[in-house]
Amino acid sequence: MLSPKLAENIVKEVRKLIGEDIIIASTDKKRVGTFHEGAKIASQEKRKLIITEEDQKRLQGVKAGINFPIFFQYDVIGVIGITGIPEKVTPFGEIIRKMTELLISENYYAEQFDQQSRAMETFIMDWVQLSEWNRNFLNRAKILAVNVAVDRMAAVVEVSGQDYIISRDIWSSIINWFVNNQNDIVIRWGNERIVILFDSSLRLSREQIHKRISKFLSFLNSKIGIPAHCGIGQVVPATELKNSFRQAERALKIAKQKQKMIIFDEELTLEMILDELNHKTKTEFIKRTIAPLLSEKELLETIKVFFQQNNSLKNTANALHVHINTLHYRLKKIEEYTNLDTKNIHDLLNMYIAVLLLDENTKNNHLSRTHSYVHP
Question: Hey, what domains does the chain have and what are their CATH numbers?
Answer without folding.
Answer: 4-104 (3.30.450.40), 128-273 (3.30.70.270), 277-372 (1.10.10.2840)
